[in-house]
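In line with agreed milestones, the collection of sequences with tokenised folds has grown. One record among many is set out beneath this paragraph:
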Amino acid sequence: MLLCGLQKTTLLDFPGHVACTVFTGGCQFRCPYCQNGELVLNPAAYATITEEEVFSFLKKRKGILEGVCITGGEPTLQPELPAFIRKVKELGYLVKLDTNGYRPEVLGSLLEEGLLDYAAMDVKASKEKYARTVGLPGLDVSNLEQSVSLLISQDKIPYEFRTTVVKGLHDVEEFEKIGKWLSGAKALYLQGYQESGNVLNPALCEGSFEKSELECMAEKARKYIARVEVRGVE
């Protein structure tokens, strides 16, 4: 598996658990606000780590860490992902997957096999604005619709949806549409955009919303979703 990084400890990425985070390379999307641009465009430029190094680390940290977050890039692009997760779980760890949801067949297979303990799916925008928001004109959103339905309809694991909110790409009224799309979901988190010189296309990112503006967006979605919170904004 193409592994491009390992964060040895996180208290934030896996709700309720002390975990580490493994980063995979490559992604289908080209979101202008992506903070991991090199992982998306040129993963080979990263000093990759081997599976052996990851598993050696996990064996040493047994009893200290509880879980492993797998993020990217987009992990479901990796053909070896199911086998990698099986090995992680054999060591007794919980597994959280971060995904953009564009490969529902992989997500569904992982859920069916019982390989996931938590899933977080990015919902980048309303369906009408998705193509522009992910930088892919003409994008077919049917795969995303399948992944949303997969998570909402299952009761095997906890999950969340999350949207990074960016001026120039989002507005308050859009969250009425997002809320309707995700109707019945357990949780949606709105994350404030973090300005950085590393984002893929800063020209399309006009800045961050104030927390009060994000709360207005959250209120729109709360009509349809049990839990909607603003995260990572003071």
